[in-house]
């Protein structure tokens, strides 16, 4: 039966060519959406490495460049800790769930293994404030004062890349500069399993958390991170802003709960997926109408052939199954061609981890299932119409 159906499809190859191309293009679009959705789901399952439920962020905005004055930041910390709702206060270069990003190139002391790292300067209290857990070593603290190299906490991804099979603790690396002589030296004191500042949909990157000390260096911290006691109401924002204004009235403060920042970031990051899904839905509707019309026309042109089969003893069920099977075989051929092209992407690593093998196979299965469902639905009525024709009607059809 299969061989017979393949012969029928091949004899009508000129008619089936455009239909196969339409199915192939639809499969490619659905595959892209499915792959993106599965990658988002895959990323969402990974830990971010920091808390957000009881954390708030305060972004400092000033007309002029913020001074890295230790007295100012010490006053901010002491004043905020006096508020009964505040459990912990820390400072950072920027907040989590923000679009801010800071990257630079680093290498081992001998200049080898150059990597681009994402980084963030944080104060000693940052880890406790953000409910972070150490995987290896320790977080930096006052015991690192006057160290021969700046202490850093790196994520596991960076540790495995730079120091495979070695203990990363105590290892040195340097910042790459134009002169390659005066770059800042860093010493690893701790490792965290994961840290993704942009939240659940951020791709894992090489990340380092360097120590920021008030009054050391020119760069000031622009974000105040707070850990509040559970049950703190949103009305606390008014009193918090008033307290900050008492410290520096010439600065503006943007106060955001990390829960709200997270929700906003997730919504922003899923916008491309939603837009592509809407476009794909319209495309599938157009493909469905085109597929239905072509199948209707093909069935009409084959009425004499169907009548001959009925006259030779084929029942209505045989005709029905033939029409549906032919369409499924045609869809299978188009999807196999598409998969032969798409499989080159994970093999060559063009999209890196964004299109890994689990995502590829999952997207292929979902796309194939949707195309088969679409083909089945579009062939049901033409098949039913062909099956209900009597042999006499079919043989006398003009």
From TrEMBL:
The lineage of its organism: Bacteria, Pseudomonadati, Pseudomonadota, Betaproteobacteria, Burkholderiales. GO terms for molecular function: transmembrane transporter activity. Coiled coil: none annotated. Keywords: Cell membrane, Membrane, Transmembrane, Transmembrane helix. The chain crosses the membrane at residues 273-296, 328-347, 359-381. One of its GO terms (cellular component) is plasma membrane. This is FtsX-like permease family protein. It is found in: Cell membrane. Belongs to the ABC-4 integral membrane protein family. InterPro entries: ABC3_permease_C (IPR003838), MacB_PCD (IPR025857), Macrolide_Exporter_MacB (IPR050250). Residues 278-391 form the ABC3 transporter permease C-terminal domain. Residues 56-232 form the MacB-like periplasmic core domain. It is a multi-pass membrane protein. Its main location: membrane. PANTHER family: ABC TRANSPORTER PERMEASE YTRF, MEMBRANE COMPONENT OF TRANSPORTER-RELATED. It comes from Duganella lactea. It comes from the Bacteria.
